[in-house]
From TrEMBL:
InterPro entries: Dimeric_a/b-barrel, NIPSNAP, NipSnap_domain. Residues 3-104 form the NIPSNAP domain. Belongs to the NipSnap family. Signal peptide: none annotated. The lineage of its organism: Bacteria, Pseudomonadati, Pseudomonadota, Gammaproteobacteria, Pseudomonadales. It comes from the Bacteria. This is NIPSNAP family protein. SUPFAM superfamilies: Dimeric alpha+beta barrel.
């Protein structure tokens, strides 16, 4: 398994707007195409205004194929357009991680 940890830094005062847009326009599309959502979080302490979500994939090829299908979905394009118009995201970081042999997540 591979886990993708995506961290979005959101402009101050825009977090609620971004979360509402994501929930209404992106969550169902991503869940349909990407499959296994491990968790979705906002920061409580540390760097403020961050959203972190984790997705699980069987392999790097699985991830590439799933993301390609999602990118081709017109609903994803509509969300992407609204996301740009909202102009709330400051930075996106993406990390692909592999669990250790003793990790509870395999």
């Amino acid at each position: 398994m591979y886990y993708e940890l995506r961290t979005y830094t959101i402009k101050p005062t825009r977090l609620a707007d971004w979360l509402a847009l994501y929930q209404s326009d992106a969550l169902a599309v991503q869940t349909e195409h990407l499959g296994e959502l491990v968790g979705f979080f906002t920061t409580e302490f540390g760097e403020a205004n961050q959203v972190v979500h984790i997705w699980a994939y069987q392999s790097l090829d699985d991830r590439a194929a799933r993301r390609a299908r999602m990118s081709a979905d017109p609903r994803w394009a509509a969300f992407s357009r609204k996301n740009r118009e909202l102009d709330a995201v400051v930075r996106l970081e993406s990390r692909l991680m592999r669990p250790t042999g003793f990790s509870p997540l395999q």
